[in-house]
What we know:
Elements (H helix, E strand, L loop, with lengths): L3 E2 L7 E2 L5 H26 L4 H36 L4 H13 L1
Antiparallel strand pairs: 1-2
Helix pairs in contact: 1-2
Amino acid sequence: MNKEKCSKCNICEKYTYRTEEEKKNITKRLNIIEGQIRGIKQMICDDRYCDDVLTQLSAVNKAIESLENTILENHIRNCVNRELKHGNDDIINEVMELFKRLR
Length: 103
């Protein structure tokens, strides 16, 4: 289980445990997104029509948003739930700030 210091206080250890299956699925989705980005770069080099490039950019945005929502759901169901069970109500403020950054 990988643990790293949180960026706010550099004392506590925040981490998210992910199963090998979750890591595999997330990595697979990121690899697809990475491939889409490479494809868009090639489209620019090939002077492809703007509409086609914009359509592909929209597809990348949707793929990233979908992955973001998956990770956010996991965060709320697991990390936030765990913190609330341990009496850490400050996690609510953290989640509110997260929503502000994401939207």
